[in-house]
Amino acid sequence: MRKGEAGPIVGRDGESSIPDEEWERFLREAEAGIEDAPEEPSARARMVARRLREEAGRPEPWRSHRPARRRRGKNWYVIGLPAAAALLAVVLYPGPVAGWFGGGGGGGAPLAVESERPDQAPPTEAAALRPTVEQPFRGSPAARWGDGTAGIGMPSARATGWMDKEQVAQALEKSRDFLAASGLEPGVLRGERPRKAIALINPHQRDVRDYLAAAFREPGRENDPLLLFSRFDEEEVRLVGDVVKTRGRITYREGERGAVEVTADVTYVYPVVRAAAGSDEVARTIVRREIVMSWDDPAKVVVEPGTFSLVSYKADTTNGGCGTPTGYFTPGFGAERATTRPGDGPEVDPYDRSTSMETRMREAGDAECGTATRS
Question: What is the pTM of this model?
Answer without folding.
Answer: 0.79
